[in-house]
Known about the structure:
Blueprint: H1 4-18, H2 27-39, E1 44-47, E2 50-54, E3 64-70, E4 93-95, H3 99-116, E5 124-130, H4 141-144, E6 152-155, E7 163-167, E8 171-178, E9 182-183, H5 192-205, E10 219-227, E11 233-234, E12 237-245, H6 252-262, E13 266-269, E14 277-278, H7 284-292, E15 296-299, E16 312-314, E17 329-331, H8 332-358
Parallel strand pairs: 3-5, 3-6, 6-16, 7-15
Antiparallel strand pairs: 1-2, 2-5, 4-17, 7-14, 8-12, 8-13, 9-11, 10-12
Helix pairs in contact: 1-3, 1-8, 3-8, 7-8
Amino acid sequence: MTNKPLHSSIEILRKLISLKSFSGEENLRSDYLYDFFTEKGIRVQRIGNNLVAHQLYHDSDKPTLMLNSHLDTVKPASTYTLDPFSPLLSDTHIFGLGSNDAGASVVCMIQAFLHFYEKELPFNLMLALSCEEENSGPNGMKKLAEEITPDMAIIGEPTGMKAAIAERGLLVIDGIAEGISGHAARDEGVNAIYIALNDIEILRKTVFDKISPTMGRVKLTVTQINAGTQHNVVPDKCSFVVDVRPTDVYTNAEIFALLQEKTESKLTARSLINKSSATPLDHPLIKVIENLGLETYTSPTTSDWMRISCPAIKMGPGDSARSHQADEFILIDELQKGIDGYIQFIDGYARFMEGIYLHL
Length: 360
């Protein structure tokens, strides 16, 4: 492969970094990319700040493979030593907010889409660049999923180009233990902290019986606790937060009901829709992964995968450990691997589908 796609990716990524794109404020990036595709004669559908483009040879009788990544970023960490919006470039690195999560996936998917734009494939190729991924907002993939119906997808997130064939969901639960206030010097009141601690110990020892073949057991961690107003008052309230990472063998509602049944504290789920995702092991996406010899794993973090209903994998350049970190960066070598990796996967999928059609 020539370096032209890589040079283009670097240029696009540096421009994207310079345009602030916090969740819900992606309009500048959407404007820029809309103009980028329009100048190339590629028709782009804009749905809010989401962008959707289809390959030139689109056939409604063929299945559709969606390439998806997100345009939004979190806000920069306070410990940045560099300007998060000034994309410093070296011979090896591009620095800046969103460079790794998920600007690198965006630009590499754009190059892969352009590579196949005028080629006829045994499936349709769709590029969907979504917004509000970082805050699970209503105007991102949630809205986009009402307008588009892909049959399978590659979700672009920093995975080191390993293929996540499943990802855990997210269930955040707020707990409130209620007691009775009293003076600490006398035998008065009911201490809400003790109620909460008892419930936390119950939660800590909870073992979920069903085991997912790809994800193992549900993971549960109590991550916050807060109580008390002053040293001599028995607290009548104690709040705590539970971080649950579901698997595909329980619904979030089932997990919540099980935990509430075990505890005295009142539990409230912030959301029940952040589901886990897993692609069937006999799906063509998995077969292509096997044919290409890609390393697979289960992702512990969520993405826009949980907002779509079709089988998918999560794969992209970069390292998830850098996401949301100060002085975020992507390696130029990782961009090249991302472009090559997406193109090889799409080509491998085409070869696999052609083989299936030949034997029908």
